[in-house]
Amino acid sequence: MNGKPFFDTNILIYAFSDDPRANKAEMLLRSGGVISVQVLNEFVNVSRYKTKRTWPEIEQALQQFQTLLDPPLPLTAAFNAKAIALARNDGFAFYDGLIVAAAMQAGCEILYTENMQHGRRVGDLLISNPFLA
After folding, report:
1. For residue 47, which of 53, 56, 107, 108 is within the disulfide window of CB 3.0 to 4.6 Å?
2. Whole-model pTM?
């Protein structure tokens, strides 16, 4: 286990927003951690089309992620196979399964996300919603 957390996309989105959860998200990111290319892709898509960020704003955020976080894990066929198994055997949505698979592959002990079952364990990985009281 590497002791670093894995961040789902919503943590990155909140860190670059006016949302009340922004301070907590920023604090988590400043402590370092791991993401995957999928998380970066989702961040760009949500930032551009849902929160209407400009390309320079998105590019600046991506540069900050490079500074704060480990290099993103690439999407691989192994992640795809693990995500299918997680969806089939554990009830995860496929794209959530990709996030869980990446976090497990990175050896992370905790996955910070708002979108999955808080407190659930998958092997040695704990899924945690950092915005709960």
Report:
1. 53
2. 0.92
